[in-house]
Amino acid sequence: MESKAKEEAVVVTGSRELSRPRDVRFWIAVTLLLAGSAAFGFIAAQVKTDAPIMRQDLQVSVWLHTHGSALFTALFLAVTQVHSTIGIAIMYLLVAYLLWRRKERYWLLSLTLAVPGGMLVNNIVKHLFNRARPVWEDPILTLTSTSFPSGHTSAATLFYGFIAAYVAYRVKSSNFTRALFVFVAIVMVALVGFSRIYLGVHFLSDILGAISLSMVWLVICLVGVRALARVRGAPS
Predict the structure, then answer these.
(1) What's the CA gap between 65 and 55, in Å, rounded?
(2) Is there a contact between 206 and 153 (Cβ–Cβ < 8 Å)?
(3) What would the mean pLDDT of 31-53 be, rounded to a whole number?
């Protein structure tokens, strides 16, 4: 009886330990979803009504535009070029191929819904808001498309966010590796977003709106596909 009770206790304890990571991932996803939705809703309302807080947008853009240098301009032009539609498409296809080779079809589905799908969502929102880009007498770049939210920043958030989520889910043995990939993802998104403001083609609110909207879309894609996988009995 005593040995049986111990075995049952081990089974219960083991099942609890196995469920904890899923519980943590679930609450992280819920937190990101709620925080991203609230942030985008607030920013979008400010942009739509041209609220006084938008003056901060112009001040940030003017300061960066008037404190630039040839070195930083060259650096951020390179960053923005790498994360253009073509650049992101190449990186997406490379990761998609690797996932296909590894037979990770649900992760491949998540990537496809997140990146190309998220860029489609971004374009729809752009047309809904139809916000004009910053205008300069001496522009570094001149673009005719609408400004809110930033397409480059959305693409970076979706792509690097997916990579960070994939590593965090797949790497079980190293907290350092997971933390490192999350940190790199945050740095890359921040770098791309900052480059767009520095080059004078976006306001700060365009960047923050893109990050929050893309974060919400990414979470929806990841959670939705994982739920589909569980329904079909795929291994976690």
Answers:
(1) 15
(2) yes
(3) 89
- Report the alpha-carbon distance of residue 122 to residue 145 in Å, rounded: 12
**What pLDDT is recorded for position 100?**
96
Residue that has been written with the tokens 């991203």 in this structure: 36
Name the residue among 186, 218, 193, 22 with its Cα closest to residue 118.
218
Quick count: other Cβ atoms within 10 Å of Cβ 101?
8
Give 50's pLDDT tier (boundaries 50, 70, 90): confident
Residue 123 CB neighbours (<10 A):
14
Residue pair 118/149 in contact by the 8 Å Cβ criterion: no
Q: What's the N-to-C CA distance of the chain in angstroms? A: 34
Exposure of 55 by Cβ count < 10 A (0-12 exposed, 13-18 middle, 19+ buried)? exposed
- The span from the CA of 108 to the CA of 102, in Å, is 10
Pinpoint the alpha helices (H) of the chain.
2-49, 55-66, 70-82, 85-101, 105-129, 151-170, 175-198, 204-231
**Do the beta carbons of residue 185 and residue 159 sit within 8 Å?**
no
